[in-house]
Design goal:
Layout: H1 33-43, H2 46-53, H3 60-70, E1 72-74, E2 90-92, E3 95-97, E4 101-103, H4 116-126, E5 132-134, H5 142-145, E6 154-158, H6 164-176, E7 182-185, H7 197-200, E8 205-207, E9 217-219, H8 237-246, E10 251-256, H9 259-267, E11 272-275, H10 289-300, E12 306-308, H11 315-323, E13 328-331, H12 333-364, E14 378-380
Parallel strand pairs: 4-13, 5-6, 6-7, 7-10, 10-11, 11-12, 12-13
Antiparallel strand pairs: 1-14, 2-3, 8-9
Helix pairs in contact: 1-12, 4-12, 6-8, 9-10, 11-12
The protein binds flavin mononucleotide.
Length: about 375
Amino acid sequence: MAASPVGAAVAQIDPNPFSEHRRTLGLAEIQTAYDFEPVFRGNVIQPVYDYTAHGDGSEFTLQRNRQAFDWVEIAPARAAIPASQVDLSSEFLGVKMKFPIMIAPTAAMAPLHPDGEIGMFKAATAASNTLMILSTNTSTPVTQVAPAALGGTLWGQFYPLQNLATTQQWMDTYQNAGCNGIIVTIDQQASYYERTLQDRNLGGRVRTGGAGAGGGTAALTGSARYRVNTGRLWYTWQYIDAVRKMVKGPLLLKGILEAEDARLAIEHGADAIIVSNHGGRSMDYGPSTLEVLPEIVAAVNGRVPVLFDSGIRRGADIFKALALGANGVCLGRAARWGLGAFGPAGAQRLIEILQRELVQTAAAAGCARLSDINKTTVKANFV
Ligand SMILES: Cc1cc2nc3c(=O)[nH]c(=O)nc-3n(C[C@H](O)[C@H](O)[C@H](O)COP(=O)(O)O)c2cc1C
């Protein structure tokens, strides 16, 4: 273990783990989400690490997602309360949740750990029935993942496909497998982080669409020369209207970054929206999600729940997003660090650490219930 190729996390700006050791930590020694990342990095080959860690372009938005949390202060509580008095349970679109935390859809988990998505779903369910959203680019089909965790809630994520018959097939597959909620991701239209080794070496081929968008690779000629994902440039609200008719349960739109889009999403039948910039993997130099959250919450005005992701690494981050109006948050990279570091036990532990940190922050801020975590509990100094 002493020779494990662990190193400082490269894609994050937070301090290195507060470990007393220079060797790789064991699961029992892990204390924060950040402790998992170097272990994960040591376990997987470089392209697998890079695929999880990085963001689009100069990674400005990736970094800003984290910086934004630093610009929000938590107001000192008039009276802190014991953690045992904190109960953050809620009901989200018919799903009872002990904590307002879910697993974001992230592609291809098999390279992180042999248990892949099945391991992640079992881990999420074991961690107080945390809802998991399965990526359309899953390494394991939904028909195998869905039955893996008794009592767990699995929803399905989907990238728009121009062909409505194929779209309907995907909806049928998800819904027949028991995925009640469907998440349609509407960001990453033109620019996204998906660099193959050939791409990096300018070897001549570039992805033209996500696997779920039926895209393949093309020579770096024509529009591919500009690395534009030509498979996703046609998205329309009419398409969302068509999908709405295919989805019997909740329909969520993921990738909302503007108040106007939030209003339109509701107009076109979304039951909830997810404020997300794909963890800085969509258009670089776009805003951090925390900065745009308040204006989107104001535009939504309580009509539908608002979920939040991009940059969550600590319980205090979750507290801040909730205080600025989110009804819940989704974990992207952090959950992958847990699975990649220690398999399902690691993913479960990671979720439980964030749940505990959230409770601890709420107690320190004097908040016993979710409704107590509101804008009076924070002060945003966005720069
Ligand atoms: C490696 C990786 C793969 C992802 N794959 C998908 C995907 O298939 N579908 C999707 O909607 N979002 C995908 N996302 C975005 C996540 O759902 C989420 O928005 C993002 O990870 C949140 O930011 P965070 O990683 O900083 O928590 C992916 C993110 C990462 C890091």
